[in-house]
Structures are given as C-alpha cells and as structure tokens.
Amino acid sequence: MRKKTSLTIVERAMVLVPEFKSRAVKLEHQVVLRGQSASTLNNYIRRIALFVIHFEKLPEQVSEDEINEYLVALARDPKAPSRSSFKHMVYGLRYYYRLLGMNKKAIALPSLKQDTKLPIVLNQQELKMLFAV
After folding, report:
1. CATH assignment of the domain containing 42
2. How far apart are CA 41 and CA 67, in angstroms?
3. How far apart are CA 123 and CA 9, in angstroms?
4. By CB neighbour count within 10 A (0-12 exposed, 13-18 middle, 19+ buried), where does 1 fall?
5. Could you read off the pLDDT of 7-25 as tens digits, one per residue?
6. Which intervals hold domain Integrase SAM-like N-terminal (predicted)?
7. 66 close to 51: Cβ distance less than 8 angstroms
8. Given Cys at both, which of 14, 40, 57, 84 links 36, Cβ 3.0 to 4.6 Å?
9. pTM check: above 0.90
10. Domain that holds residue 27
C-alpha cells in the first residue's frame, strides 16, 4: 500500500499562507455553530484554499478588481470542473467575507443567476393513465 505524501489543497494553502489556518478554523466553527453540513464546509474551504493558493495571500488582502478578474477567468475556463464549483467559490468567498465583517466586499461579489426549469406538462392520455392507477 502506498503512503500518502502529497498535501491536500487546504494544507497547501496553510503552508503557503500560514495565517489561513486560523481563518479556516474560524470558518469551521461558524459552519458548525450554524448547523450547516460538513459538505458545505468542505466545499467552501477547498474553494477558498484554491483562491489563497492562486493569490498567495489571504482573501481579505485581495482587491475587488483582482477578485473580479479571477472570477471571470474561472467562469470562462473550459477546463473548470463545473458551474457548481464556480458557485461554491462565490458563495464561499461571500461567507468568508461576512464572517470577517467585510459585508461591503461580500456584497460586491456577483449575484448568480438561478436556473429556471419549466414544469413537465402531461397530455390527456398521460393524465388518464395517471388517474387510472
């Protein structure tokens, strides 16, 4: 069995920017206190860690212009994992900034468009089959 030697994304961010560790702990405490899921914490913290690795500094030290440029590049990147990972980045940063009392910076992040889905409309034959059961 191979021994794990590489660091996780979060660990890499903590090595690169040591102050990130205290922010990650604070974020974890807030997620737990608010009763949010471990999945929410993991998604947010991984996305924020990627952000920290990219800029090599804490998110509060990054200007709004730099944030916007980063998010535009992320949204346009054809290799980006998915739309949901982009959403986790935006929501994670928003959560992080609000946690630090930086509401102005949190509000400056882009609003994300909700996908609208049309309802499925059944025809008469399908309705008869449905009610015949």
Report:
1. 1.10.150.130
2. 21
3. 51
4. exposed
5. 999 999 999 999 999 999 9
6. 31-99
7. no
8. 40
9. no
10. 9-112
